Structures are given as C-alpha cells and as structure tokens.
Amino acid sequence: MKGDYKTGKRININKLIPYIASSYRKDKIWLRRTKASKRNYQILLCIDDSFSMGINKANILALESLALLVKSLTSLEIGEISVMKFGEKIELLHDFNNNFNDFNGSYIIEKFNFKQKQTNWKLLLENTMNYLNQAKLSNNNNRNNSNGIENVQLCFIISDARIQQDRENLRNNIMDCINRNQ
C-alpha cells in the first residue's frame, strides 16, 4: 500500500492530522495497492453476426456490450483484448498484439452487418480454442514466463444463443476449453 490518493483502501494515519488542520482540504490521505497483478489476462470477445441478432434487435445491445466491455477492460489495464465476429464464417477483427483505441473501435463496429444466415457454433469453438492456444504459446515465448506471471485467458460470447447444431458436441468442446484453462 502506497501513495497519497483522494480515494483508496486504507487511511494514511500520518496524513490524517494535516487533513483535519487544513479544514478538510488536503484530502489525499488514502493508500492504494500498487503492486502489479501476478496475472496477465488475454480476453477474447466473440460477437454473433447472424441475421437472427438483427431480428430481435439484439445487434444494438451486442455492439453496446462490446463497447462497454472494451472501455471497462482498457481502463482497468487488465491485459490484452481481441475481438472476433462469428456466424457462418469466423473473422478476427482485432488481435491481442494490437493496442485498442477509438480508431480500432470504429473499424470493428463497421465490420458488423448482422446478415450471416446461420451460426456455426462448432466452428466458433474450434477456432476459438486454436486461436487462444496460439496466443498463449506466443505469449509464453515472448515473455519466457520466468517472472512468475500466470497467463489467464477468458472468452466472452455475446449472442442470442440460437443453437441449431448438436448441443452435446458443443458441451464437449466447452469442457475441453475448461480443461485447458481457457
């Protein structure tokens, strides 16, 4: 715990008396945790680009959710963010290696048209597992993982959840992801 902040977790007792003596104006009396996290997050956001999303007007909610998640995660500086759209075809719109900014965000939103005829869930899960495995391997090679930082991968799937394929195979694919700590 370090620092002189206006908000925080604990009060710095040494700053308390000057705070009261200044008629409560010198209010930087709080301490915060400043140690870096022992985890590096790789977060993949998958958005359904199928026609059914447009029928229910879930497309607007999906894009708002995408913007909210990206803004929140970048402000927390939690790690790397990647965005993928899926339907009949899968397309990676933003990969982990690029920093996220407003220009990238507008480019990503323009790529969604919500006109794909169906959602291929099996293809999505297979591509997601392969992409996350490749990202983990390249991340381990780049950082050599000698500093003890754990790589954690998360995948958020934003969809209307209309699953036409075999649900049992999808369940098995999801269990494979869980077993790989993805």
TrEMBL record:
Gene Ontology, cellular component aspect: nucleus; preribosome, large subunit precursor
SUPFAM superfamilies from the UniProt entry: vWA-like
Gene3D superfamilies: von Willebrand factor, type A domain
A biological-process GO annotation: ribosomal large subunit export from nucleus
GO molecular function annotation: ATP binding
The entry's keywords: ATP-binding, Nucleotide-binding
InterPro entries (UniProt xref): vWFA_dom_sf
Entry protein name: VWFA domain-containing protein
Native source organism of the sequence: Adineta steineri
